[in-house]
Design brief:
With about 190 residues, this protein is of the alpha+beta class. The chain has one domain: Aminopeptidase. About 30% of the residues lie in helices and about 25% in strands. The radius of gyration is 17 Å and the shape is globular.
Amino acid sequence: MGPVTTIRSFRPADAAAVAALIARCLREVNSRDYPPDLIDRMCAHFTPERMIELSGIREIFVATSTARAAEPLSESPPRPDSRPAPEPHAPPASESVFRPAAEPASGTVLGTVSRDGNKVFTMFVDPRAHGQGIGRKLMTHIEGLAEADGFDHMETGASISAHDFYRRLGYSDVRVSETDFGLNYILRKPLA
């Protein structure tokens, strides 16, 4: 049986792990849709100190693995030939960036999301754990909190990279916006 994912509130001790997770997502996933200079600026923005600062402004949650597993999340497997690895901004030329994830060790931060009322911010899941339902669990968690607070919809600004994820969760496009961090889709989802 795989690890159990627990959603809990962000703690200052999570700041370094969350910042590293965001940087990994930006470099391995978002780099397909945004130029290297923009990825560098986004990585520089989401520092551990910034995450602690944001935790005073928004509710931040993390998804962690709570069951001991056989091995930690692994790096990308060795290259089958002697070619050097590609630059961190570019996906490998002959390989998919996504790999079947090994099961994480207990306590590993697998994802994060934050909210301010009914607004979704900073939603990231470790690329090695994509496809395991972690993003859906994080979103269900904050959607439930927003609904309990009396909101009738959720809204987010999604990157090009995350747009399809939100659409699969029932979010609809409202408009496209150009931000300091590039093109964003503004999406909205009604709450029950």
